[in-house]
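User: Continuing from earlier, I have the next pair ready.

Assistant: Great, send them over.

User: Here they are, in order.

Assistant: Folding the first of the pair now:
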Amino acid sequence: MAYIFRRRNKRGKLVGNWRLGYEVGTSRHQITLKTKSRTAAAKLLAKFILERDRVVVGGRPRIAVSEAVKQFLDEHDDLHPSTVAWYRRRLEAWRKWLEVDPQLSEVSTNSLRKYRRWRERDHQPRTVAGDMRTLRAFFNWAFLDAELLDRSPLNRKTCKVPRIVRAARVALSREEREQYERKLRGMPLFVLYMFGCYAGLRLSEIANLERSDIRNGEIVVQSKPQRKFTVKDYEARRLPIEAELLPVIERLPSLGPAVPSPRGKFSNASELGRRWRAAMQLLKLPPIREGKRGVRFGVTSHELRYTYASVQIQERGVDIEALRDQLGHSSIVTSQIYLKHFKPLRKPVRDAGEQPRAADDGSTTSGSDGGVTIDEP
């Protein structure tokens, strides 16, 4: 801790020059300043703090940005490897932009705003939002957990994260599922579609799936499979086998991956995603959506999980708690997001010979082509 003070005489009047006191560990030190002005003493105190390394000010040690980033990554090593890699890439990009290695306490809000504007020149808003979320997590850790800062220079008021408009998710209807099955049957990606649509597996989980994971009438999703590609979950789960999956499981090879690569080996999630997107564009399956990059056909591989949730809730009658366990979500809030993208089930069509239903007030409802008119009494 560093501070300035001045002695008082017996009458309580300040006398002599100002003195600078500071503590390092348990030892205390004093330096006599050759000034009687409080303003000049305060300027000397600020200069002393900036020039001396490892001086404790307000109980918070000074530390360089590179060392703080290293400590942040070490303390978050227990997170998923993809999350740690995300943090490392974005923090390294920020460090390169700084060009020098300043003290963490010298990083200002204005500097972070300039970095955000610089990233917005050549990157998409989604990428910039990820950069700012990473920096926010880093500075919150330095302020709240490590106590390296008196305040965080990055918060919602001082540096806003770009707003991202996420694309609407789509859950396939029953007619669309039948169309997908007809088009994809006989293709290697048919297995991917069936396990995504009727088991709710993630793309990385399908990449690690093999015949030995299906036993005793259940699909065992391993938490850390002994293969090259890891999955997002940390907890293993068991899924019931739907009737639609039985013919597909019988045709799976006894050894090797369920969805092999062109070379017959395990594929990673990125490769499977590219193959799936190419198949959608080739077959021109519904739905058809227009975006900045042109017309996009079909659903994404992750939207197959939305279809699985729609089937379980609307057709199987599964409650939200059981759906959370089947999808492998840690929070029920994430499962509730899936409910917003369900298509309403179509009402049964009335036969032509059926009489119109009588209303409570004596009127009857009739119409054609789906329209409804009311005949007043």
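And the other member of the pair:
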Amino acid sequence: MADTPDWAKDSSPKDSSVTVSAAPDWATSRPGQSIAKKPGDPSWAQQMGGLTYGVATELAGAPGEMEEFFTTNVKGERLGGEGQSFPTAQQVREKLKGTPLEPDPKTKFMQKTGEVVADVGMAAPFGTRAVGKVVGETTKEGERIANIAERLGFKLSPSQVRAESPVAEKGAVFWSKDNQKLANRLASNGTGKAVDEITEPFLRQRIKDLGNDFDRVYKGKVFKIDPSVEPHLENILAREQELGFAGVDAVKGAARSIIKNIDTGTVQGDDIQRLRNALTQAARSAGSRGKAHEIYELVDVLDRAVENSNPAMKATLERIRPQYRNTVILEDLYNSGGIKQGNISLERLGNQLGDKAALRRNPQDIDNLGMLGSQLGMRARWESAGEDMPGVVKGAVRTHGIIPEIVRGLSVPLRTRQARAAQRYASKGGTTQKLAEAIGAVPAIEEIIGPKTKR
């Protein structure tokens, strides 16, 4: 190794009690060491100790600060006499004076910084909760329904979920396109095939494909069916005029043949399929929605009778029966104007499914989507969103022009995902409620709406 040149050698005295250095501070400081540090300044560890001390004493004194605030009048007089249950932050610091826990007096700046950090940290949740209150409080049931929609992937606006005067929306601001695509795919998936846009050709093809699936189940086979279907078949024959297929020999002939062979267990699959085809054709050409869906109900009763008595066909029929039913519902929604430009209105789907006089209810996904749509006012992209303008103002301006749009524009921040998150946080209750839940004073929310599902 080469000898170190004289200019690079350490020429400082070896006596540790003497320090000689002609070099300026900036030339002798090590990387990461402040060149502004003066002799006697607190170390980094001492500075962090001061910061921690400020945070800790401010948090420890928070209960006392609140108690003092609520028990002192505007004149500074204590209500209810002298004495306080909890110490204030200043009192906590007074008690720590002269103890090993008190930091170096020169870390005063970091102590103050810690106090500010603690104050902001305590205020943030209250601020978020305040925003949640501003956008509208919700009910437990409203939060439960909204949580179902959000777990599916929908991004909601707080105005859809609030308890008072909820507003129908396309979802949170800037999320209408994504919400619409999700609605289309979930609804169409109920037919057995998910697509981005629900069109008339798509629905027509699904009816045809599912009809072929039923053909493969029934055609050329002989089997027994549940005898409970006989009164329904008699009903078909008795109401042929009312239901709109009077004089259709295929319906009468097939129904009579099935009734004749129920007891012997030799029902022809061709008869069942002939009856199904005739009934579905009558339903699709019926002028009344109520009549059409009543016929579809009879078809479903027939399919269910076959399923109940033939375990080998159960898996197939359990799959294609609800798919066919959902396709019929979507076709009816399309014809009534609830699907436009390939986009479905879940609000209108829910309103249609809620018409108990005309439609049956079943625990399938499309019915659940309809429930979410009607409860949360989930509108399609082609529909107008609700207006965040009080009715008295609309009555005064007598216009749906630019003024409502200006009002909605000003309310954009209150219709974002962030505002919805604040609303959701506010609905969970404050620290007092959570403490009461912990000690059993009030029931936890899980006991009311069921366990929470992790996202």
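Worth noting for the second one:
Residues 186-376 form one domain. The longest strand covers residues 222-223.
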